[in-house]
Each structure stands twice: as C-alpha cells, then as structure tokens.
Design brief:
Strand content: under 5%
Distance between the termini: 26 Å
Shape: globular
Low-confidence stretches: 1-6
Number of helices: 26
Oligomer: single chain
Helix content: 40-55%
C-alpha cells in the first residue's frame, strides 16, 4: 500500500519529525512508530498568535497591573507590567497619581499581609514591590537574619519569612525585580532588555538587537542582560547578528556571542555562561569552560542527568536525579542555568511554606519556566522531583501540575527529563495532574514527539521502581488510546517493548497492563510481534490471571496484518504532516 503525505514537507522537516523513518516502515509486516528527533534549536519557536504587546501608556499600565495583582497566574502580563513600569517611571502626570491611589492602597494591603517581594516567591509578590516603588518612590526594605530568614520592614507591622527561595531560580528573577524596583523608585526610566516579545518568555532576536543598538547610558543591570540572552528564540538569529552594531562593551559582545558570532571570552563569568547556554544549549562550550572551569552543570559544560533508584532499609523505593557534572549545593546567584540544577537541594523541608523548586503558586512555577525556555530539561528535572515526592500524597500541591504545561506545546522537544515528567504524570493520583499529562501525551503523539520507542523507554525505566501504580497507567493509557488508531498503536507497541525491557519487574497490579495489552491487541487486530515481549510473556507461571492473559497474547493471530500496519503508518504521516503545517 503506497502512503503519501497529504502535505509536502522538505527532507529536513521529515527528518526532524521522523516522518522519513515512518515512511521506511511501509513495506514491513510489523509496526514501529518512532519519535521525532528535534531538539528545539532547529525549529521556529515564535508564532504571531503568541506575540506580546508592550504597554505604551499609563492608563493601560494601571489596568494591567490591577489585573495581575488580583490574579497571580498571569505571568506574561506580569512581565509586561515590569517592562511598562520600567519604561514609564520617569515622569508621572498628576492625574495618574490620583488614578494610581486605589491600586497603591491595594498593594499596601497585600504587602502588609501576604505579599513577599524580592525573596523568590513569584511574579505577583515582586510586582507588588515594583508598584510600591512606582507609587511611593521607595523600595520595600528587606533585612536578612542569621537564621536564613528575611524581615520585611516598613509596610505595616514588620514580618519575617523564610529566605530559602533566594537560592532557587526564582531568587534570580527576584534579583532582577529588585534592580527594576530600585530604578523605578528614583524615576530612572529604562527599557528592559529581558522583556519577552512572545508568550512563555521568548524574545525575538531581531527585537533584542534593536534594543541593544538603541541602548544609551549606563550598562543594563547584569541580571537583566543575562535573562535577555537566555530568553533568545532560535528564529532569525543570523539576521539579528548582521544587524548588531560592533561595540567594545562586554555585555554587547556577549550578546554577539550568544547569537552565534565570534568574540573572545571576557572577564564576567555570568555573562559568558548565559551567552554560551543561549548559543548552543545542548553542547559544551570549550571557550567558556576553559575561561571559567568547573562552575557546574549548564555553565560552560552542557548538563546531563543520571536517574537513580534504590530500595531503602525499610523496603521503600527511593528515586532521584543526579546532574552531570555535579551541581554545587549553593550555586553562584548570577548563574541561573546552574541554579536550575542546584535548586533541587533547597527547601524540601519547607514545601508547605515555599512550595517546591518552582515555588508555591501556579504563577511562580510558570515564571520559572520563562528563565531559559529553549532548554527546559533542568526545569523538568526539578518538576519531576516535586511531582514524585507528591505522587501519592493525600493532599496535592496544585501548582505542581503547571510543570507539565510546556509539554502541551508541540515546539517543546520531549527529551529525557520532559519524557520522565510526562510519563510519571500519567501515574499521578491527583486528577488535574494526570489529566494534564494525558492531554500532553495525546498531543505529543499527534505531532510526533511521543513515539512507541521513547514511551517504551520511560515505561521500562519507571516500572521497576514500584513508584508507579500500574492501575493508574492503565487508566491513562486507555484515555490516550481512545483518541485514534495511531494513539492506540503507540500505546500497544510501547507496552510490548516497555514491559519486556523492565526485565523481572512484576509489581502489584501488573495484570492491569496485560489486560490493556490484550484489549489493544484485539482492537487493532495486531498480534504481539516484539521478540522480547514474546519471550517475557513465556515467563509467567502455570496459573493465575497474568498467565492466562500472557497465553492469550502469545496465541492470538490475525489475517492481513501488513495492510493494517500500512494504514496506521499512513495515519501517522498524515497526522504529523498536518501538525507541522498548522
């Protein structure tokens, strides 16, 4: 059966989305649905629908600030507010001072009761501090205590709180917020280099170059420059590099390097680490590593991860992730890409007060995802540890589901940590977490990021740990398989390979996955062809439910399976091609 893509794709795009490999399966009597191979630097990440409009006047600024103050989840609008406050703080008309009064009263109430600006709590807290500086000309006073707590002074009754989040990626964002607030307080209007041009934290490289070329006066705050580099999208970098004017300033030279230009590495480690991670996030930069050696994972050296599992003395499974190279327990505050690894060490005993690595709220988790959007593996790793620690807890941490949100985007590559987070989420007890993971998996199969091969790998990795309850996976896989024959085939193939690759793992409830495998086998009219799976099915004993299911899987046969395989492959190609041209 000949299969033609309904929409013509060039060879490069076919390769990235593994359509060429799917096409190669057409003449086979068996079925394989490989996952896409793109890494996120090789596709366009900016869409017109995601463009953010800067705030240009005081009326709009007050309107948007008032909205965000009442809804902490609006992180894109929060970034627009920081930029608007920074650009419009130079002179405030008298009528704006009157219009500002209700918002300022509300901010006073929040600062006196529950907002904690500039200590890594989230964009909502920091924006309250920035609005306070805009309206009063003063910056909220913070004082560090010897017991790692922070005192908030001068806004109502003095309060103190934990400062542990300053050691997380949120702390880096709060340092930028504080620098912005300090300028706002003295009326020094300046555009933000790091203001996103598109939702999710992305900056169009051409627009960043325009900001750099038009910059005058003092150098930008270092945290602002670093964040701007890390938020660079891959789109249009060559064009942006051509437009960037030559300059001797180190921060401008670092920007040229980030865009792919040639520059000698300067003296400021934080700038050049950010430039290296923006330039090529998945590979080691030998120039930066030589100039600033051994700073940690995702400094000069690109990070990798090791999945660690053991059973403790009480028979309980213990899982974790180790960054390679090893993350320093306390990372340099100016190195956010390293902090994204080190933050997994901090605040675990304060989860009720501070949340996990990404903070306590939906807004704080979403804001963390906006630090380095082109390479979210370290963010997904932190999210996975938070999710696993709460997988079966009686009370869900609602913000943890937000770690899964970027996986809904077909432009987010499904590398090892994102895959681990997704497949673990399919086993979550909390319906919101599991439901979001199911939605992400359905979409990832449609666009090609989730294939039978990488899904099988995750199943084989997680099943022996005992942390995943097979019954929850069964429920999730049933919902995924209902979507289409392609989704059903991906689950069918992944279960064959994943269960057999899990070697001797036979956790309680394994028969539920065998039941699903039998159901999908009959539904698709495709028998078990994977040799490893057939060998694994032979290991079951002479009696019991699992044995009966295994015997059925080993003996069932269907006519004309090759035609059905070809039909499914045609659907895969149609589905992936349509998504890439949407």
């Amino acid at each position: 059966m000949e299969v033609e893509s309904p929409v013509r794709l060039d060879a490069g795009r076919k390769r990235l989305w593994a359509i060429d490999r799917v096409e190669a399966q057409r003449s086979s009597a068996t079925l394989a649905i490989p996952a896409a191979v793109f890494d996120g630097t090789d596709i366009r990440r900016l869409a017109d629908a995601d463009r953010l409009t800067p705030i240009h006047d005081f009326e709009e600024l007050l309107t948007v600030c008032s909205r965000v103050v009442e809804d902490e989840t609006l992180v894109d609008d929060a970034e627009r507010c920081f930029d608007g406050l920074s650009r419009l703080c130079g002179s405030k008309p008298e009528h704006i001072q009157r219009r500002l009064a209700p918002l300022l009263r509300r901010v006073h109430q929040l600062l006196a009761s529950k907002a904690w600006p500039f200590i890594g709590m989230g964009p909502w807290d920091d924006l309250c501090g920035a609005i306070f500086a805009f309206g009063t000309g003063t910056v909220v006073s913070l004082r560090c205590k010897d017991d790692q707590k922070i005192e908030l002074l001068g806004v109502g009754e003095d309060r103190q709180f934990f400062g542990e989040n300053l050691s997380k990626a949120l702390g880096f964002l709060s340092r930028r917020s504080l620098a912005v607030a300090q300028r706002i307080a003295v009326g020094k209007a300046t555009p933000l280099l790091s203001a996103p041009t598109h939702a999710g934290g992305w900056i169009n490289p051409v627009e960043l170059v325009n900001r750099i070329n038009n910059w005058s006066g003092d150098a930008p705050d270092q945290s602002d420059a670093i964040l701007a580099l890390l938020r660079l999208a891959p789109d249009g970098r060559a064009e942006a590099l051509k437009k960037l004017k030559p300059h001797s300033d180190e921060w401008r030279r670092a920007a040229r390097y980030a865009l792919g230009g040639e520059e000698p590495v300067g003296k400021t480690a934080a700038l050049w680490v950010a430039a290296a991670r923006a330039r090529s996030p998945w590979t080691t930069d030998p120039n930066v590593e030589k100039a600033f050696p051994a700073l940690g994972p995702d400094a000069g050296t690109a990070a990798d991860f090791a999945f660690e599992f053991h059973v403790d003395q009480y028979g309980q499974p213990r899982l974790g992730l180790r960054s390679i190279p090893a993350a320093p327990e306390l990372a340099d505050a100016s190195l956010p890409t390293v902090i994204l690894h080190s933050q997994r060490f901090h605040g675990k005993g304060l989860r009720f007060e501070l949340g996990g690595a990404g903070g306590k709220t939906v807004g704080s988790v979403r804001w963390s995802a906006m630090i380095w959007p082109i390479a979210r593996e370290s963010y997904f790793a932190a999210g996975w540890e938070d999710l696993v620690d709460n997988l079966d807890w009686w009370e869900a941490n609602w913000q943890f589901r937000s770690y899964l949100e970027p996986l809904l985007d077909s432009r987010t590559p499904l590398r090892n940590m994102g895959l681990l987070l997704l497949v673990t989420g399919l086993a979550a007890k909390e319906p919101g977490e599991q439901g979001l993971a199911i939605d992400a998996a359905i979409r990832a199969i449609e666009d090609g990021r989730l294939g039978s091969d990488n899904l099988a790998h995750a199943i084989a990795q997680l099943l022996p740990t005992g942390i995943v309850k097979p019954g929850r996976w069964q429920k999730a896989f049933v919902d995924i398989a209902r979507t289409s024959s392609v989704h059903a085939a991906v689950v069918h193939l992944a279960l064959q390979q994943g269960l057999s690759d899990a070697t001797d793992a036979q956790p309680k409830g394994l028969s539920k996955l065998l039941e699903l495998l039998v159901e999908l086998t009959h539904e698709l009219a495709l028998s078990i062809h994977d040799p490893g799976c057939r060998e694994w099915l032979h290991q079951f004993g002479k009696s019991g439910k699992a044995k009966k299911l295994a015997q059925e899987l080993l003996t069932v046969r269907f006519d004309d399976e090759q035609t059905r395989c070809a039909r499914i492959l045609a659907e895969v190609i149609t589905m992936r091609s349509a998504r890439q041209n949407a």
